[in-house]
Amino acid sequence: MVLAILASAWVCLPSAYVLAAPRLPTDQAEVLERLPMRPGDATARELTGLRAAVTRAAQEATTDTLPATQLAQRYFDLAVARGDPRYVGYADAVITPFAQSQAPSLLAVRGQLQQYRHEFEGALADFANALKVDPKFASGHAWRGAIFLVQANYPAAKTECDALQALGRNTLTGGCIGLVHAYGGQMEAGFAALERALDGTQNAGNRLWLLTRLGEVAAWRGQVAKAEQYYRDALALGQDDGYLLAAWSDFLLDQKRPAEVVKWLANWDASDGLLLRLALAETNLKLPSAKAHVRALGDRFAAARMRGDTTHRAEEARYELQLAGNAAAALVVAAANYRVQREPRDARALLEAAIAAGDAGAAQPVRAWLESSGFEDAHLRQLGVISAQVKPVADAKVTTPPNTKPELRP
């Protein structure tokens, strides 16, 4: 579902797996682990059928990439929906034998997997190559627009929106241009575009994504009741979606309603992003389970640093600041994250860390973005003002967290 714009990065390994030593199997037929499926689970039956098709294609030595593409796409969708990145590894393995393929749909899956890992330039190239083969491949434009939005490159994102409009893809155009406007200082126009897109589609996946983003934009505009209604409408669709649960939980936390977060996230501790929000709510409520969840998050982030995984830096920054009480480490991670990702949530993480650490200069990139974009969230703009006025904190010397690899990006 191509409107699921970069919602896939808020998942991580369960704590039972993150510290295990890596091992490369020598037998491709070896079963490493079977992911839990409920008896009679339709998804299990679907995956069995898709895997059988891939096996048949391999046995027949066919060059047809469709079976592998379909299975890899399904794995990726499950990673997003269930917050379990092991599915991403499975998807990678499925398409690896077709590394030289220029089939647009396979290139698109590979691009999605790369953006999941925040390898944005590689993802942009894959989507561009897919469009060279098929100029009408709309999802290529949608994903490129999504990545440009994350990078705060709004003119480039607008170009992709225009391409979608030229293809007559009205729903995709509305979702794309709605966020370009919302991020770029025209929140009312963005909200209206997203609403028109919602009115124009009955597709459940598209509606879930649009309702979620409408909830976010309404919250940015200070329309609390309207935001809650959009989130609840999205939840009422009954689809698993990690992005929706994270956005909804952040909304509830901002509204001082942690008990509801615990209710919604009780069974979602496989995802780092959702476990973070659960731990924040439990800590706020002083629940006995909070300590174990905070410790599990610390283990996961330490393991991620050791293997060079930078996918979850925004969540790690919040962990360091709000749960570990380490403003200096939070600032290091938030600043590194903001060099790669520049969405509003990333900006907020850096502003809050800079304020806590007493480092006005560290927040300058966000203040520059607020000035150039005109982003209208009053709370974020207030944080920007506060961040410019903070004084250094004597005991908040900024140091790199243990096992953090040097930032290689410019």
Written account of the structure:
The protein is mostly helical and 410 residues long. Among the domains are: 1-13 and 45-151, Serine Threonine Protein Phosphatase 5, Tetratricopeptide repeat, CATH 1.25.40; 293-410. It is built from 21 helices and no strands. The chain has helices at 15-18, 42-59, 66-82, 86-95, 104-116, 120-133, 138-150, 154-166, 170-183, 187-199, 204-220, 224-235, 242-254, 258-265, 272-285, 289-306, 313-323, 327-338, 344-357, 364-373, 378-389.
Structural class of the helices, strands and pairings? mainly alpha
What percent of residues adopt helix (DSSP H or I)?
55-70%
Low-confidence stretches: 4-24, 396-410
Any idea what the shape is?
globular
Per CATH, the architecture of one domain is Alpha Horseshoe
List the helices and strands and how they pair.
Layout: H1 15-18, H2 42-59, H3 66-82, H4 86-95, H5 104-116, H6 120-133, H7 138-150, H8 154-166, H9 170-183, H10 187-199, H11 204-220, H12 224-235, H13 242-254, H14 258-265, H15 272-285, H16 289-306, H17 313-323, H18 327-338, H19 344-357, H20 364-373, H21 378-389
Helix pairs in contact: 2-3, 3-4, 3-5, 5-6, 5-7, 6-7, 7-8, 7-9, 8-9, 9-10, 9-11, 10-11, 11-12, 11-13, 12-13, 13-14, 13-15, 14-15, 15-16, 15-17, 17-18, 17-19, 18-19, 19-21, 20-21
